[in-house]
Protein: Glycoside hydrolase family 3 protein
Organism: Nonomuraea longispora
Amino acid sequence: MSQSDRGLRRLAAGTLLAAFQGTTAPAWVLRELEHGLGGVTLFGFNVAEPGQARELTTALRAAGEPVISLDEEGGDVTRLAYHVGSPYPGNAALGAVDDVELTRRVHMAIAAELAACGVNLNMAPSADVNTEADNPVIGTRSFGTDAELVARHTVAAVRGLQAGGVAACVKHFPGHGATRVDSHLAVPVVDVGLDVLRARELAPFRAAIGAGAKSVMTAHVAVPAVTGDAPATLSGAALTGLLRGELGYDGVVVTDALDMHAITKSVGLAGGAVLTLAAGADLLCLGPLPTYDDIQTIVEGVVTAVREGRLPLERLEEAAERVAALRAWFGAPHEPTAEQNGVGLHAARRAVRLTGAPEPLVEPLVIEVDTPPTIAVGDVPWGLGPWLPDAEIVRVGPEAADVPVLLAKAANRSLVVVVKDAHRHQASQDLVSALVAARRDTTVIEMGLPVWRPGSGAYIATYGAGRPNAQAAVELLGAR
């Protein structure tokens, strides 16, 4: 292989953020990092505990200069605490409090934990304005439904993360909040005019750019007024015209995971890689599914596209320059920030809302109504278990639940029903309504968005399902 061929392959590999299974780095990852692989994206299955995560990232750094990224949003979406639940409330809870200094402090604490584990790029915050209540993929990941509120908290999150030396990646450009389709499964459409897009979806991104956000993540959503039928990730009009041109952004553009169906079921992994690079992306998050062979195929696809003139070499060189500038920022001195113990619980306590008055707990029966996890969240534990050790806790699927049996079990006892985004699941609503109709003194705890309310004796909204959200709810029950 000639020197020019090796240089081209290195440029192509330098755009990729690969993933791998397990808690140690496979030999192929270390080898590819030596040969110029841009970096890695870590998932919950890569992290057992902080010490192991630090050993893993130390090994990765010994092989190259990787961008080491993951999704640590707080609340429902966590990778460091995937097996136990996040110690921080997510964006919906912080938006409900609406204290930008608190949002900044929470994200400084998150940054401290990430930096201690060797992570230098956080795929957060979500800057999506969640105007669609039935949104299956954003929900509590958004600060709220108001563009100005979302903008000011996005800025606070960016500043908190980057004060701790961890680059923020503001997502999902140009906005995933007005969709009713999960882009892991298909291409959602945000069918609004440019005036609405600028005033609503783009406002938080414009603010984040002004605050110095180091990276922005693309969305696999089509915005017909800008992208036609194509998802923004593959659209030069969105990434180069709108983001670079109109909004003046010159930082690193990172794609959402290219293994999502919005890409793989339309243009394929390698085809998607070429198209998004041509559109203006700099780093390609591949997601957890692509194998080493897939990654080799992607590199070959990018190299071939350059040789055939479908992808300008200058585009790869420009991406390499932007990523090099990001790496230089990683290496610059950052003032260390101590982990702020307790800020997560403090924030969750300020966010929780109580309607009505719970009766004193008497041999409580807690019915947790199971909710299918979204792909972005994964199977992260949630519920009241750790905070009500003396209660009997039953996890039920709403379709299979036997209401008379549950009511008989709850006889002469306090009944607490826990749901998560009940407004999106008719079977959950039906089950809770039947229980409340028979037991008006039921306390319902909603650990998603409090859109649907069943008229129970007491109703607690936590705005998220992280560990501190659950603890704050239990405190309102008067448990001792």
About this structure: Residues 313-331 form the longest helix (19 residues).
